Amino acid sequence: QVQLVESGGGLVQAGGSLRLSCAASGDIFSINTMGWYRQSPGQQRELVARITTFGVTLYADSLKGRFTISMNNAKNTVYLQMNSLKPEDTAVYYCNVNGGTMDYSAHYSPYDYWGQGTQVTVSS
Question: Cβ neighbours of residue 70 under 8 Å, at least 6 residues apart?
Fold first, then answer.
């Protein structure tokens, strides 16, 4: 099992900034990617950004330039710096980790876990 602890959400005025953090712990063994998704009421969960342990990033096109994802491999922690926030950024933000574990017989088992989500509210 891998546990994800998210922090940094809250209420901010439009134009402001927030920094989300997500720390992974437990039976991690090897992480491939970590990322952030968000979901607004009545909407599907959508990609915000993902990052590999080599630092390769992927962003939702609409968020490029305002959001920055980074990762501290040593701490198994991913960050999302959100600047110039808009009311439409209001959503629950979820952390995701993708990786795998290996047992004593070298059997590799992939995993994919989600955090419980952290609310981000941007007031106009």
Answer: 51, 78, 79, 81
Strands 2-7 and 57-59: unpaired
- The string of DSSP codes covering 93-120 is EEEEEEEEEE-TT--EEEEEEE---EEE
Helix (H), strand (E), coil (C) string for 30-52:
EEEEEEEEEECCCCCCEEEEEEE
* Residue pLDDT tens, the chain, 124 long: 899 999 999 999 999 999 999 999 998 889 999 999 999 999 999 999 999 999 999 999 999 899 999 999 999 999 999 999 999 999 999 999 999 998 899 989 999 999 999 999 999 9
Q: Taken in order 103, 106, 107, 109, is the CA torsion positive or negative?
A: positive
Q: Nearest 5°: phi and psi at 99? A: -170, -145
